Amino acid sequence: MFEYVAIFVMFCLAGIIATVIIGASHLLGQRTQNRIKLAPYECGTTTIGPTRRIMTIRYYIVAMLFLVFDIEVIFLYPWAVVTKKLGLFGFVEMMVFVLILFIGYIYIWKKGALEWE
């Protein structure tokens, strides 16, 4: 129980610091609202049409799949650096990892998650 006191103190300090920063920003910050500040702004150009559009769910699915496969590929780099030290065991383990990754890729491809209409 005693070893968790440091974690509890860290959470308390983080909460106090966050509260102080948000409170100071609320009390000391400038609040000026005018027409220009409330106007929608996107990529340096004035938007045309409604700014609140419903995005298709395919966009989010493709984004999540990209992140998942991108993060999994990150594991390949350290393996490539120490592949000689790991020997045959490391090679077999990485081939199992790549096989699981490939099976997942085929699965999402067959489900049509990568098709954009």
Structure notes:
- It is built from five helices and two strands; from the N terminus they run ααββααα.
- It is mainly alpha-helical.
- It has a two-stranded antiparallel sheet.
- The longest helix has 28 residues.
Topology of this protein?
Elements: H1 5-28, H2 35-38, E1 41-42, E2 45-46, H3 57-74, H4 76-81, H5 83-110
Antiparallel strand pairs: 1-2
A few lines on this structure:
Helix content is 68%, strand content 3%. The protein has 117 residues and is mainly α.
Keywords summarizing the entry:
mainly alpha, 117 residues, two-stranded antiparallel sheet, 5 helices
Q: Which consecutive residue ranges, at least 5 long each, have pLDDT under 50?
A: none
* Envelope shape: flat
How many individual β-strands?
2
Average per-residue pLDDT, rounded, comes to 86
Broad structural category = mainly alpha
Give the count of helical stretches.
5
**Share in β-strands:** under 5%
Q: Walk across the major sheet and give the strand order.
A: 1-2
Order of helices and strands: HHEEHHH
Rg computed from alpha carbons, rounded to a whole number of angstroms: 25 Å
Fraction of residues in helix: 55-70%
The end-to-end span amounts to 56 Å
Largest sheet: 2 strands, antiparallel
